[in-house]
Automatic annotation (TrEMBL):
Lineage of source species: Bacteria, Pseudomonadati, Planctomycetota, Planctomycetia, Pirellulales
A Pfam family hit: DUF1501
UniProt organism field: Lignipirellula cremea
Matches recorded under PROSITE patterns: TAT
Signal peptide residues on this chain, from the entry's feature table: none
Superkingdom of origin: Bacteria
Protein's name in the database: DUF1501 domain-containing protein
């Protein structure tokens, strides 16, 4: 087992530290047999997956992002609801977003906004589990994942778009609400379907991807010899294995071998090869360089890349925190979408910006249960009844606003959307059959997505 310390980080409102450890082990491997995987791949092929070359970049805003202060401003609501910032018009007539997003306002015709997403749960862990797995089950009292990440299901079926690249990647780390890999894990699909955790900040001058290079004492020839020897043992073991339970281990070994011996991965992760102007365009900080690295990876052949942007749990001092984070997101989303379009990759790369829930429509008094302003200036609390999600690329039409919330931004007014609707839409973009079944830990077949449908307006 490999353990990598994550360093010092802040805490969530429930007291859980974001400091956690990446643990890569073999627990859970082999929970899905070869026959199940082959059926899934065959079904995906019949559904057109083999003809697609699409990928997804998910910008995960960990902690909960206010819909009012981003993509669903309420300029006519009372001051305590509409918040600190005003609304601005975009290049799409009739569509407004926060005045903190001037760069995105210029390219609103390139993305669409889902304003009526909801799951009605204000618990960080329940909300994250809903958005990332499509199902309930986790909570602050029980933070363990119950189902696999929807991106892990997709990459389980599709693999990478190019040999030598990891199919499912997380930058700078695979983390959801302080848990690694948390709700980004493969769960009953097997640990080999967890994201490849980069484990390092790509904005650092000494950025280096762990586990992507050999120890100095190991040569490629020695590695090949060892692999050949293991293959001989595998053949002997397979003679007595009637269920294909070793195939997951084989897949994990194959991916690791290709990544170390094929220079495609080495080149894709070499963010220093990017032009300085391009690096500046995304922002010379962890979030910006993570998004740029994500673009490099999907361009090279990764299928699903998640960027973790933490620090959105703004119960107090909301204004100060948003003055830092919102401009960074504005810069990143604008740079990523325009960069993909300039490189001819936007039609084949879906971009998603989302978090576990929204924030309360009405701002609080900064007391968090104590006297007003005792914790700081006013903020917003947890709100799972309405949130906004940005989607772009991958064949999705830009300039659309799907769904709406009521006058105060409390609940969906029309076209209510749930996480499963988004997941169906992502599977359509990637070419994955949402009706596939995978066996859980008890051997029971579980459907990939258990509710919702494709958001047709986007196409």
């Amino acid at each position: 087992m490999l353990t990598i310390p994550a360093g010092k980080t802040s805490r969530y409102c429930d007291g859980r530290s974001r400091r956690d450890f990446l643990q890569i082990g073999m627990a859970g491997l082999g929970s899905v047999g070869l026959s199940s995987l082959l059926r899934a791949k065959a079904a995906a092929k019949e559904g057109g997956a083999s003809s697609k070359d699409t990928s997804v970049i998910l910008l995960w805003l960990d902690g909960g992002v206010s819909q009012h202060d981003t993509y669903d401003p309420k300029p006519t609501a009372p001051p305590e609801y509409r918040g600190i910032w005003g609304a601005q018009s975009t290049n799409v007539p009739g569509t407004q977003i926060s005045e903190m997003f001037p760069l995105q306002a210029k390219i609103a015709d390139k993305f669409s906004i889902l304003r009526s997403m909801h799951h009605n749960n204000g618990d960080h862990f329940a909300g994250g589990h809903h958005m990332l797995t499509g199902r309930g089950g986790a909570s602050g009292a029980d933070r363990t994942a119950k189902f696999p990440f929807f991106g892990a299901i997709a990459t389980k079926v599709l693999g990478s778009r190019q040999t030598g690249l990891p199919a499912n990647v997380a930058i700078p780390s695979a983390m959801s609400i302080g848990l690694r890999p948390g709700f980004f894990g493969g769960h009953y699909l097997g640990a080999e379907n967890d994201p490849f955790d980069v484990g390092s900040d790509p904005s650092r001058d000494n950025f280096r991807v762990k586990n992507l290079s050999l120890d100095s004492s190991v040569t490629i020839d020695r590695l090949a010899d060892r692999r050949n020897l293991l293959n001989q043992f595998d053949k002997l073991r397979r003679d007595v294995d009637n269920r294909g339970s070793l195939d997951a281990i084989d897949e994990f070994d194959r991916q690791a071998y290709h990544m170390v011996t094929d220079d495609r991965a080495q080149k894709a992760f070499d963010i220093a090869a990017e032009d300085d102007k391009m690096r500046d365009r995304y922002g010379r900080h962890s979030w910006g360089q993570s998004a740029l690295l994500a673009r490099r990876l999907v361009e090279a052949g990764s299928t699903f890349v998640t960027c973790h942007f933490g620090g959105w749990d703004s119960h107090w001092n909301h204004e100060g925190r948003m003055h830092t984070t919102l401009p960074q997101v504005d810069q990143i989303v604008s740079a990523l979408i325009t960069d993909l379009e300039d490189r001819g990759r936007l039609d084949s790369t879906m971009v998603i910006v989302m978090s576990e829930f929204g924030r309360t429509p009405k701002m609080n008094d900064g007391g968090n249960g104590g006297p007003p302003l005792s914790k700081g200036t006013p903020g917003r609390d947890h709100w799972g009844n309405a949130m906004s999600v940005l989607v772009a690329g991958g064949g999705i039409q830009g300039g659309q606003v799907v769904g709406s919330t009521n006058r105060l931004g409390e609940t969906p007014l029309d076209r209510p959307l749930r996480p499963g609707d988004l997941h169906h839409t992502v599977f359509k973009v990637l070419g994955v059959d949402p009706n596939l079944h995978f066996n859980d830990m008890a051997g029971r077949p579980i459907i990939a997505i258990d509710h919702g449908d494709v958001i047709d307006e986007l196409f």
